[in-house]
Amino acid sequence: MTDPILRVEGLNKSFGAVHVLHDVDFAVYPGEVTALVGDNGAGKSTLVKCIAGINSIDSGRLFWQGQPVTISSPAVASSLGIEFVYQDLALADNLDITQNMFLGRETRRGPFLHDADMETRARETLRSLAVRTINSVRQPVSSLSGGQRQTVAIARAVLWNGKIVFLDEPTAALGVAQTRQVLNLVRRLADNGIGVVLISHNMNDVMEVADRVDALYLGRLAAEVLKKETTTSQVVELITSGRSGSIGLPAATAAQSA
Amino acid sequence: MAGEITTELTRDESDDPRASFRVDTLPRGLRSALQDYVVRVRRGDPGGLPAVLGLLVIGVLFSATTPLFLTANNIGNLMSQASYIALIALGLVFVLLLGDIDLSAGAAGGVAAGFAAQALRSGDLHRAVGSGVFTALVLGMLLAAGLAIWKKLYVPGALVLGGLVLLLTGADETHVWLAFAVAVSIGLAIGVFNGVLVTSLGIPSFIVTLALFLTWEGVTLDAVKSQSIGTSNYKPWFSMTHDNMSATQGWIFLAVIVGGYAISTVLRQQRRAREGVSFDRPALTALRVGVLVVAGALVVWWFNQNRNPNPGPAIEGVPWAASVPVAFMVVFTIVLARTTWGRHLYAIGGNMEAAARAGIAVNRVRIMAFVICSGMAAVGGLFLADFSGGAQPALGQGNTLLYSVAAAVIGGTSLFGGRGRPRDALLGAIVIAMIPNGIQLHPGLPISVVQEITGLVLLVAASVDAISRRRARNA
Predict the structure, then answer these.
(1) What are the Cα distances from residue B347, in Å, to A99, B141, B197, B333, B428?
(2) How many structural domains compose chain A?
(3) For labelling, which of B26, B64, B339, B408 has a CA lying 20 to 30 Å from the CA of A73?
(4) How many domains does chain B have?
(5) Tell me: the pLDDT tens digits for A51-95?
(6) Does B278 touch chain A (CB under 8 A)?
(7) Is pLDDT of A255 > 80?
(8) How are beta strands A212-217 and A33-38 bridged, if at all?
């Protein structure tokens, strides 16, 4: 088995008296889609924010390509190569695709913006992802559909050499056809060697593109299972009760947590 | 959409023109440029269109009803009338692009011009305004400089400190240009306050600037000691709206502006062609540059004719009141369209959250926009003082601000942020200035009509803005 790009070991996080994450172990592998699932309040967002450097951690260790690291701020996360695509997309409607992909990291020639360079690189990135639903990198984002926006947001993460890309509910607001586009894109990202973390409530999406499924249950990692060795109903059980048959948390722990 | 999905897996990439982003590498001719323009307008970016239409409608109306309107002399006057509106509007564009507003711009211009005029008139500003006012001015500027430096805005901080040095050494009392420098630095200081109050305390800009609007009205009274201070003794100041460039200066100005545009456009398109991204065909570039050269040359030539309808000294040359706003417009256009800072300003106006997540120092950009706005308000205030016969106790009050906001909005700058261009604000200023200008040429019409019509024109412009925004959202 390949080594994980990112490994989280025994992560604990409390907000005051509320112990949100208990000894969570989590790993992201190159070329694989890891689905992070769990009910509302299970601690998915907190885990992601700890990795993003937005929240500090109380205890536990992070390893980046085997080396211990401290992610103290979002800047550290992005310098390592961790990119986040948020649910609300974080795109500026009044700018075009290229301008959004390079927002905050524009290239310049002398004192002025180097638009040609940015357009070329945006185009190459979209092409490398075999994006066929967009015809120009100079199209304003306001004219794009939900799926196209999601595509741009994901391409931005790829452009910045994301070695790991976190996708937060990427298909939540999309129709059937657009969901398909985005899932294809998620798969292509992994096929390009990127470690993808898919945070989703949608079991169809998870079972379709994920390689492994990490289920959080009330702040504990209930189980990490390979998709091919599991079923949708098992995953749902892990999410709702923390255990399923022989997998998941020991019965005592699950009962006590609940 | 659905059709594309079914074909996605079967169609070879090389067959699909979109898969290769071909439009992004093709040259653009006149036809596709026009198509792009129509698409842009339909998607809710009217640009200068409302201003051009307003210019035509109002221009035709006045030309048809009075022979006095479309005369060289009147157009020359129109430039003076539009100058201060244009200058303040150019500054407002920055703040409007954020989705904010600066209601204090007119009054801030009054304060800046008021102190400059008093310094020149009295020769001893400290004694003329009294210790209390002078000390407050010095401490205020010191505080503004400190705030600017604290927020890492070193350039405005240094400029305010520079103005403070001139003020304390009394240099502004002896030389008109140094008095201008102090006026502008007072404007910059006011902008720092606006920006810091809006970003650090989170007070809506509408309230901050409305409150300070009132304060600055009072400070203007303190500055001019409730008198009107004429500008006619101070040569460069009196030239602002009363004088013209010499014929040669006019041609040089045109050559610099149009030549600069031509060279940068041609080089840019050549580079784009070399670098394999879509570029304008040489014919299209030539057309653009050619139109500008011909139009510019006609304007300069026309202004260079004597336009004094009476016998007496000739009035000829491009008015400074026209060339100064144009020069600022060119600089601001470059800043907004070609620099990282400008790109970030647009991004903040489009989606502040996205800009912050992209690592942009959002508040620093926002404060800077307020600083530029108030700095331009000071420049506009100087022009206004000259145009209205002197720095008066009520300088910059009344309609000054509303005219300027109207100019920016008619020029296609959105009140919702994220959309607008300096060039169009100049057109808007001419539209706004035309209304009082034309109505005054109709002796039969009461003067009340000016405000009534201007208000309605602003309302129409704001409606166009709101409708455009809806279109953009639904596109």
Answers:
(1) 9, 31, 21, 16, 24
(2) 1
(3) B339
(4) 2
(5) 988 888 999 999 999 999 999 888 888 889 999 888 776 799 999
(6) yes
(7) no
(8) parallel
Residues of A in contact with B18 (CB under 8 A): 132-135
Cα(A27)–Cα(B269) distance, rounded to whole angstroms?
48
Residue B8 forms part of a structural domain: no
Contact (Cβ atoms closer than 8 angstroms) between residue A243 and residue A237:
yes
Question: Do B421 and B413 meet the contact criterion of CB atoms below 8 Å apart?
Answer: yes
ipTM metric? 0.88
Chain B nearest CA to A118, separation (Å): 10
Residue A189 maps to which CATH number?
A: 3.40.50.300
Query: What residues of B are in contact with residue A113 (Cβ under 8 Å)?
Result: 338-340, 343
- Whole-structure pTM value: 0.90
State the residue for tokens 């992994």.
A190
Cα distance between residue B336 and residue B332, in whole Å:
6
Q: Does residue A112 lie within any of the structural domains?
A: no
Q: Do A119 and B473 touch (CB under 8 A)?
A: no
Answer yes or no: do B370 and B252 share one domain.
no
Q: Which two tokens stand for residue B143?
A: 């505080």
Count the neighbouring beta carbons within 10 Å of the beta carbon of residue A128. Answer: 13
Mutate which of B38, B271, B343 to disrupt the A interface (most A C-beta within 10 Å)? B343
In a domain, A158, yes or no: no
Is residue A106 one of the residues assigned to a domain?
no
CB contact under 8 A, A126 and B21: yes
Are residues B268 and B384 located together in one domain of the fold? no
Of B5, B358, B475, the CB nearest to A143: B475
Note the pLDDT tens digit of each residue in A212-237.
999 999 989 888 888 888 888 888 98
What is the span of the domain harbouring residue B266? 244-318
Nearest by CB to B354, which of A103, A123, A130? A103
Q: What is the mean pLDDT of residues A186-200?
A: 91
DSSP assignment of B23-71 equals GGTSEE-HHHHHHHHHHHHHTT--TTHHHHHHHHHHHHHHHHH-TTTTS
| pLDDT at residue B4 tops 80 | no
**Closest-approach residue (CA) in chain A for B17:** A135
Query: Which among A208, A132, A136 has a CA at the least distance from the CA of B1?
Result: A132
Chain A: give the shortest CA distance to residue B56, in Å. Answer: 29
Whether residue B222 contacts residue B129, with contact meaning beta carbons closer than 8 Å, is answered with yes
Q: Are B294 and B363 found together in one domain?
A: no
Contacts across the A-B interface (CB distance below 8 Å): 124
**Would you call B418 and A93 a contact, using CB atoms and an 8 Å cutoff?**
yes
Q: Is the pLDDT of residue B460 over 80?
A: yes
Residue B168 touches chain A, beta carbons under 8 Å: no
Domain with A214, as residue range(s), is 6-89+167-257
